[in-house]
Structure formats: C-alpha cells, structure tokens
Amino acid sequence: MATEEESIEQAAASRRERLKALKAAQELLNAPDEDSSQAAENQTDDTNEENNPSMKFRNYVPHDKQLQEGKVAPPVLPKFEDPVAAAPPASEEKEDPFVNIAPKKPNWDLRRDVQKKLDKLERRTQKAIFKLMGKQIKLFLLHILADTYVGHIGNRATRTRKTVG
C-alpha cells in the first residue's frame, strides 16, 4: 500500500509541475513585449471604438448611405473538389464482397452433392409431364373424332331410312 500511495503522490507532483509550466508559458504569451506607452495608446483606441462602434451588415442592406459603407462583402467559398469523383474507378473486376461476408447455409454441401441427381430427376419429371399431356391430347382428339364420326354415321343412317322407308 505504501508503494501505491507513493506512486500516487509522485503522479500528483508531476502534474503540479506540468501545470506550473503551462501557467508560466501562458503568462509569457500574454505578457506585452511593447512599451507601456504603446499599451496606453491601445487602450485609448479601444475606448474610441467602444464610443463609435462600427456596424457590419452581412444579411441586411441599410437604407442610409453612411451605413451602406459598413456592409460586409459576402464570403468567398472555396470550390469543393470531390476526392471520390476525381479518382477514376478501378476497372478491375472484383468479386462480390457480400459473398465472403454472408454466411453460407448449413446445407450447401448437401445441395452440391445432390445437384446432379436433382437435375436428372427434373429431366425425368419434365418428360413424364410431356407424355401425360400428349396422352390427354390424343384422348381429347379421339373423343372429338368419335363424336364427329358418330354424328356423320347418324346422318347417313337417317338418310338411308328416309330413302328406304
């Protein structure tokens, strides 16, 4: 515990020394290097400015000619140069960064292994559907042909009956 207290005291002492050094440096910066007579002139100038304050108008245009002289010119804004637009984009094709970020589904390896079998099964399913549709179309056409044939035979039978009877 004694060592902890000593280290704390040493840290406090070093901090005090730094603060004293900063304070001394601040006093040197604020201390006037000029003669006291020039300081007195500056004080008289300050009092004159306080008595006659100069008005500066930024967003207001006064009607009085004397006050218009105090109008401040609008600030000149520096041109903005966009660093992103200035540099041409790299034409190199890069792979999608989200592929590496997004986690893969837990069954991706199973899908990869079974994909051939699924493709083969899909082809067989399509062929079976095509065959069933072909059979249905054939049955439909046979049904239509049978109805027209029966209707045609029925017309003949009625004709023959009329002629015979």
Automatic annotation (TrEMBL):
Positions of region (Disordered): 23-104
Pfam families documented for this protein: cwf18
Residue stretches in coiled coil: none
GO cellular component: post-mRNA release spliceosomal complex; U2-type spliceosomal complex
Protein name: Cwf18 pre-mRNA splicing factor
Entries under InterPro entries matching the protein: mRNA_splic_Cwf18-like
Highest classification ranks of the organism: Eukaryota, Viridiplantae, Streptophyta, Embryophyta, Tracheophyta
